[in-house]
Design brief:
TIM Barrel, about 30% helix, about 400 residues
């Protein structure tokens, strides 16, 4: 991502800093996103030429001072600048709604009763969920669709969709020919707001995890109706201090969930749950999966479609003659008990800690060479490459 390290990838000079830091430090092949912020339109084409795979912007404050939110005019300038480039523009799609009070305190001039005090206690997940309602996502997505006419051939993408309320709007835009793709995340398909306890800030992410019924609607859009094409981790690690674990204040904690490396068993576990029991669809009628979900379906969501999104499908995203031999050996009958103390990312904190997941990645192969196995761990010398070739698609 362009912002989860300083400096953010908003200029070529900043990009070169990140490349220098990543050199000989990657266990897998790595591409980079550029960032769109106010007043950096002149930097965008040079970043394309330097090899970024596309661009991300925030339509609400990101929480990182160096990566401010964009206004509609900034988006229009970026679209106009990039309209003839081989790239993609991605949106963190939340936008402040003037009709909603987003603070976690009382509405001005009104006295809180005891129930309201409990609801707005910043140590409760409900306080955070109330502060970022579905309308914030829907308003932002409608704005993206409206502005898409600025550059109708420029691919646009909604990152980490959480609210199923936006799905009809997305479906209508896609049917009308807007070049709009959408992803959701492992945690939005797994967790439900009703089950998140107080002070468990390891569950905080933006947009927030919503209710169980919303969770099921996202599954439906992935499995049946097709508005959602990819599933990603949105891995956003941070220190326990930034997560405010000591106080458990959802309003102050860093927003982000760590799950990189766990996605395949997380998805497989969710699919197995749906295959083994009946569940309610959007009309509150009992149904089952329309058809069995295959590993080819999973590979499409997390490999092929993401490789196409970043312009790397010629070499990545599937196993075919002439492509890099990137794949894993997965045992769907084994299990994984997630122990965050041994996870291979630096800040070892995840809401999946203690979860029993179906399936186990036994080996990971990068360009034909094993880089990880459950018996030997990771290879001692990083062999990943920095993917800097300019996009052709």
């Amino acid at each position: 991502m362009p912002l989860n390290a300083i400096p953010p990838t908003t200029t070529v000079a900043n990009f070169q800093c990140k490349l220098a830091a990543a050199e000989n430090q990657c266990w897998v092949d790595v591409g980079f996103w550029g960032g769109i912020v106010p007043n950096n339109a002149a930097d965008l084409v040079p970043l394309v030429n330097a090899g970024v795979r596309g661009f991300k912007c925030f339509m609400i404050e990101s929480g990182v001072d160096e990566f401010p939110a964009v206004e509609d005019a900034d988006i229009v300038r970026a679209m106009q600048t990039l309209r003839d480039e081989k790239t993609i523009v991605m949106f963190h799609a939340e936008k402040d709604c003037s009709s909603h009070n987003h603070s976690h305190g009382a509405a001005e001039g009104k006295k809180q009763d005891e129930n309201t005090k409990q609801q707005l206690d910043p140590a409760t997940y409900d306080a955070f969920l109330t502060s970022r309602p579905d309308d914030m996502e829907l308003t932002a997505i409608r704005t993206v669709i409206e502005l898409s006419a600025t550059a109708p051939q420029l691919p646009l993408h909604i990152v980490h969709l959480a609210s199923a309320a936006a799905l009809p709007t997305i479906a209508a835009a896609q049917a009308a020919g807007v070049k709009l793709s959408v992803e959701t995340c492992f945690h939005y398909l797994t967790f439900a707001a009703e089950n998140i306890p107080p002070r468990a800030t390891q569950y905080k992410c933006c947009p927030p995890i919503r209710a169980a019924a919303n969770n099921e609607a996202l599954w439906d859009a992935l499995l049946r109706t097709g508005e959602i094409g990819t599933v990603v981790s949105d891995h956003s690690p941070c220190t326990p201090v930034l997560k405010d674990l000591e106080n458990g204040d959802y309003m102050q904690a860093w927003g982000g969930i760590s799950s990189v490396g766990l996605g395949l068993p997380i998805l497989w576990t969710g699919i197995q749950k749906r295959a083994s029991k009946q569940h309610l669809n959007n009309n509150n009628t009992t149904t089952t999966l329309a058809k069995p979900v295959s590993f080819a379906d999973i590979a499409r969501w997390i490999c092929a479609n993401t490789a196409k999104q970043v312009g790397l499908f010629a070499s990545k995203g599937s196993i075919a003659v002439g492509k890099d031999a990137d794949f894993c050996i997965f045992d769907p009958h084994d299990t994984l008990i997630v122990d965050q103390s041994v996870l291979p990312f630096k800040n070892k904190l995840t809401p999946y800690h203690g979860s029993k997941l179906n399936g186990l990645v036994r080996e990971t192969i990068l360009r034909g060479r094993t880089v990880f196995s459950v018996t030997d761990g990771h290879v001692p010398v990083p062999t990943g490459a920095l993917l800097l070739e300019k996009r052709t698609v």
